[in-house]
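help with this record:
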Amino acid sequence: MTLTDQRVVVLGGTSGIGLATATMVAREGARVAVASSSQSSVDRALATLPDGSAGYAANLTEPADVARLFADLGPFDHLVYTAGEPLALMSLDTLDLDAARTAFELRYFAALSTINAAIPFLRPGGSITLITGTAKDRPSPGWSVASSITGAIDALVRALAVELAPVRVNAVSAGVIRSPLWDSLPDEAREQMYGHLETTLPLGRVGTPEEVAEAFVFLLRASYVTGTVVTVDGGTLIA
């Protein structure tokens, strides 16, 4: 399947993996629209994307905002959902339920609400691709909330692939990637984490957003793939 002249909507597409995906599908000939909660982030992303790309500011946790977004967008071919706040890991003994609910709200419930709003505008032959992570497969201490969210997204992909067929529904499961996702960590702690991973991962390095974007492009083009999670983790699950 070619992406030439296909319309691809990337929610969370103004930084990190989302922006890398938007950039890559645009190079494949797609017409790209990105959305973020911040107008300034949208403006920065549009400055790097090809002419003709579109950008929208929308709060994805507000159903009314999401409904307006898709009404403005109109028909499109592929939905990519990479929205998520920087991760704030927490151990059980310091559990903040409000923070945990907030994390679920954007990464799971907003994704579900967005898909519900998007379906009437999705053209035949279209697809939906979500972001998840390897925390569900190999959690560490402090990752209970993140593992729960990624596990829920996995289950959602399989369920929606059945319910929405023949719309294709898939996800990309990313390992630790050098991206704004980790901006909540102090610089020194973040670099220590990257350095430790470089000594343990089979590939000997931490991945880039562009390497994860390759998997998104594959799933957009793979017309006989649905209900599938593609893992891009540098070997995390076998290390």
